[in-house]
Fold each of these.
Amino acid sequence: MATKAARSRPFLIIMDMVKNYDLLEHPGSLGLEVVECKRSAVGCGPTGARVLEGVSLYLVRGGDDADPERYPRMCVRVSDEAFDLLSAEIDDRTADIWGRNLHLGCRVFSMQGDVMVISLLFIAEHDPRPFRAYYLVYDSATATLFMIPYLPPDCPTIGTPCPLPVRRPDDGRYALALLAYRSNRLGDHEPDVLCLWSLPPLPANMKPPALPRPQNDMDPWVAKSRRPALSDRLNAHVVFSSKDYAFWVDLKQGILYCSISDMLNGEEPVDFKYIPLPKECKMPTDMMDAVHVHRNMGLDGDSAIWFVAIEASDNSARDTNVKVWTLDLTELMSTKKTKKWKKTREFKMQSIWRLYAFRKKGLPRTEPRFPVWRQERGGGVLYMLLPRLNDRHGYLVGIHVGCSTSKLCFLSCRSLSIPWINHPVVLPLDFFTLGDTIV
């Protein structure tokens, strides 16, 4: 009897931590596949180029909902030869005391369109700071894995270190952008900067000062001054860009944005503007640490910004309030000081529980988490994760939200056999070019 094929997922959800070496122990049973890609180490020196030769990407796309092991996962593997190459750079005196062991840290930092940015950190026993550090940049459009230098340590990022990939309009290549501040030798903070790394060739009009090299054989990042200085009160949780603008989002406060053309040209300072969140979206103090669990923001095509806020209730999960807001990008060009958010929808979870499809499937009546808004056929669909009580499983539910006057419609539901995730990463189904299945 033929095995029933697994239903197609609307998208993949993976954990942000991707050093999953356990996947390589029994790869055949998981359906582990090789990510096929060209490789290019840019500005990382001879050592970096040899390290990249030993880097491989793997993916488990997931199986049936009932399979607790075959949930979507990603793995970054570094060869023993690459580890040996770097550990040999530890000086003999330090090695006599601490040894030459290196630990690997890998995390998906950001996703923007067809580009994923992953940190690749090698940490030695004698120093908690990275011994060597790189960014891996996977370009889905060309199936290419780039490796570039990490941001230098004297330039701490503002908030979460989320590098924003921005396509250059001249040649289609991209630059990485980070908000940071400079520290002098006394440890005092100097004016805020916009840190940029651009894949060669560097645009002729971009010649801002270079930052110190993270390692001697690496090419430097460049820094551009910016205004206004908001580093004391901004924490970038989410980054994304439209055709014309780059956005850094503090999910508790608002959006900091600038023109991409201003970012990539050689003029300084880069002018930044700020849009506060809707006034009624202030977070309770006790929820400050869970902001990414209950809120999310992104781009709807190239026309609007969406913002979803889940407001938990002290009484019951049924009173959890869900709000969906949009901001038309034409508002950014308005001369009005206040940009106008539009509330697309507001509902309590109790209204979802009452839907026939929800009751028929026996879904858990729990507080929703990790909202994702997607524009699909027939309008906007809000996806949320409903965790099951007392285990590490949940249900991904899709709700057709429509306009504020239309009826809520329960569209889809999938059981997700996944461990608890703190920072889920959402991928299109066809994001990676996959090759052989490992057996």
Note: Residues 151-276 form one domain.
Amino acid sequence: MIPLSLISECTKNLASEHAQVVPISLFVAVLCLTLIIGHLFERNRWINESIVAIIIGIIAGIILLLISKGKSSRILTFNEELFFIYLLPPIIFNAGFQVKKKQFFHNFLTIMMFGVIGVFISTFVITCGSWWIFPKLNLLCLTAKDYLGEATIGTIFSATDTVCTLQVLHQDETPLLYSLVFGEGVVNDATSVVLFNAVQKLDVSKFSSKTFRLIGDFFYLFGLSTGLGVLAGLLTSYILKALCFGRHSSVREIALMILKAYLSYMLAELCDLSGIITVFFCGILMSHYAWYNMAETSRITTRHVFATMSFIAETFIFLYVGMDALDIEKWKMTKLSYGSLMGIYSSLILLILVGRAAFVFPLSAIANYTNTRASSDQASRITFRQQIIVWWAGLMRGAVSIALAFKQFTFSGVTSDPVNATMITNTIIVVLFSTLVFGFLTKPLIRYLLPHAATRKNIIHEEPGSQLEDLNLPLLSLEESAATNISRAKESLSMLIESPVFTIHHFWRRFDDAYMRPIFGGPHNNGSQC
């Protein structure tokens, strides 16, 4: 006969296991439902997948509130570590791996201006505006240290989310615009996180000349993070080429690429660098070298695996943001009046609009001026309508802002401070409003401004070869062929002086073909001998 104590213990263990399994199972079920409904709305004129995920998250949160009788709207507890360690790396790596290298590097300087200088300008505008407006709205508990030292509201709300716009644009129809929006989105997120961590170390009470080292330290960390990503990508490429993994097992070479990419991200975080920048450039280098050292079947598989992981992570994030908006505990802790809260929300949205405009239009003018002097090609000129779309694409806020706010104002996703709870709810409302309202208007706006440009609605069935074709392009590629660039470079010394971009491209192609590809792999040295 089985003792009752043993039965009781087994029952407790089973209940404990179910306590962990049930929430995860429910969330996965809701995630599957989101994918199905998102597919049904794929051709909708107004709604995109991000909006669908957030709306379903809100509906799921309402149902949970009703079931729990107003106690909780969450299946899982948000943890910024979950976001930064597990969800963000596959998204950024896939962005680097799938990037159109030709357009990205052709517009590299403009992208860096938008993604780096733009974040500094936006942070300054939002921080100063918050410092001036918040006390007038009875949010008096935030000190100068909160604004400029530990929290930096400006960096939290300067992190953009361009997913909604990228789901509408198509890189083959609007290559310049897609490249700018895509590239700035990645660099912006990386810059915001690095700047957030750097500003936290500032001591406002001892503002001195050392504070001005912030910019130098920022670019120092930016460079080191890029170098680490390049090193990880080259090392993976060399290992795949030297050991011929594909001859024995496609599974091993795919697993090695995934693990090395993740390892590069974690090493960057352990060294207090930017894991976002590291894993992004790691993805670019792997697509340029390592991809050619893999078996033919592995090449196709890796693209789909990385894209799938990124897609699931993005959907997971938007779904959770919708559910977390109804966290009743945070709303109960907020002690400000309804009028003050509405004033704070409106002020933050207005500051985001102004902060975005403060750098997009001036920097676009500078980019147009420099591009005109370097080349007479009008295709690289950012028109006023394109500038409006770039400005609009960066108005939406997403998971990076949420994660930074949770990192600053909570401990393991929980806070008991009314001011901290207010800042969390502020961030959630801004993210929801910007994603739902601005995202809702994105498709019609782009259709109005670019009536002749096709969107994803019209090009859903893209030829598989179009993606694979881009991987055959050189790492630094311009719109003209390599032969044209080389002939230009050889024509005269004056052409080299007047067009330095062609010179850089010419010497890089020679160096890449002569030294890099024989060692690390490439379209002409792709390891076929394995």
Note: The chain is about 75% helix and 0% strand.
Amino acid sequence: MFTNHAAQNDTKRTIESHMKMTMIESIRRW
């Protein structure tokens, strides 16, 4: 059984990693 808190932490982790990937790609394009 998944808890709502765990789901929120997992989503936050995914968003943070996605933002890091976007920043890295932006830097490479410069």
Note: The radius of gyration is 13 Å.
